Amino acid sequence: MKLTGVELRRVRMPLAAPFRTSFGTTQVREALLLRAVTADAEGWGECVALSDPLYSSEYVDGCADVLRRFLVPALTGRRDGLDAPAVAPALSAFRGHPMAKAALETAVLDAELRERGVPLARELGAVRDRVPCGVSVGIMDSVPRLLDAVAGYLDEGYVRVKLKIEPGWDIAPVRAVRERFGDDLLLQVDANTAYTRADARHLAGLDPFGLLLIEQPLPEDDLLGHAELARRLRTPVCLDESITSARAAADAIALGAAGVVNIKPGRVGGYLEARRVHDVCVAHGVPVWCGGMLETGVGRAANVALAALPGCTLPGDTSASDRYYRDDITAPFTLDAGHLPVPTGPGIGVDPLPDALEAVTVRTEWLPA
Ligand code: SMG
Ligand code: MG
After folding, report:
1. Does the model's pTM come out above 0.90?
2. Among 53, 210, 299, 352, which residue's beta carbon has the most beta carbons within 10 A?
3. Are 298 and 159 in the same domain?
4. Is 101 a catalytic residue?
């Protein structure tokens, strides 16, 4: 496949409600959409970096810069064609920037799969045609507000609830949700690195509530700390930020730092590496699930395909479009009895709606070969 060029499109989409985590509050999702154009097809990729480098070191403007100056030219400047598996090797000289690389690889992969008429889910090895969905619930001003929000999501049919936690917002909200909604609710928490090794005893205070897992309590680079914590908690430790590659997943599992793994393609450099993370986890009997980064319908379509892999045995953060946006840029993903359908069309299986896309576009840039 020979690239004719890549379009970078900056979008700005207000969230249905502000989303607060231990690292900050998102009110408007700014994102970068990539369109890879070849002679015979075009493909889409969504860059999941946030506006500020708070979840990880990447951020939207930084991704646009590295794509424009280094990553896209490394592909479009080639005299020979390339297929999707050749993208990561072609970009490997450039350190870091997995979210920017993932978006570019996904756009190329989507174009290639559309050309071949193959759905992404099938290419990745999916075994389900619909996936059970969880919802990630932000930190709130008060416990009553949180209970209302959770009740609303359960009414909509979500099959699992994840509460964002931080010091000062952990035991009490978890206890309140457990008491109100009962022991059968699938419940988990996510700290986004907000704790330290010294908090082990405090975090053990979550053990009585029968959580599915606690996600990323400690800093990204503290694998040993997570291993030590895992030995002191009954609640399984799940890693998100720390899992930056299939090798990182293998290391974390070998150390006893990850009893569960959250897979995010953007964090590991793309869907092909995400598949390898999945395979490493399956080989070790470690359950995995597909995380979320407040994606638009473009990123959601691809995540739902990933969530349909055999090792994704836990519900993911793949919520319906209306959990995030009043107007998504694709036909909305809607919940049916707690599940989302896996797209069946070629590639990611969805197309941005031209008018909806135009309405949220701040800037487009064409990077020709
Ligand atoms: O897409 O539903 C979603 C968000 C899920 O909680 C979520 N993502 O650490 O897992 C995580 C966070 C990272 C993004 S927060 C803006
Ligand atoms: Mg997380």
Report:
1. yes
2. 299
3. yes
4. no
